[in-house]
Amino acid sequence: VQTDLARYFLHRRTRSSPGPAKPSPESLRGLLQAMEVPRDRALYVGDQLLDADCARAAGVRFYAVLRPRRSRRD
Known about the structure:
Helix content is 27%, strand content 11%. The protein is globular and about 40 Å long. It holds the Pfam family HAD_2.
């Protein structure tokens, strides 16, 4: 799903970003370091179990966004 949210974030990582991918916590730790945000002040919002695994491995709180399932026709 493409959104317009990227314009609100100075630091971000996507699937195409170089470096370790989820669920490796390294990219999340790197983002927190770049933003000077301690882990206990961070919140990871995601919609996949892989997101939860990444947050847990990095020691960051996680908030799940539940989306309705879509058919292949959508």
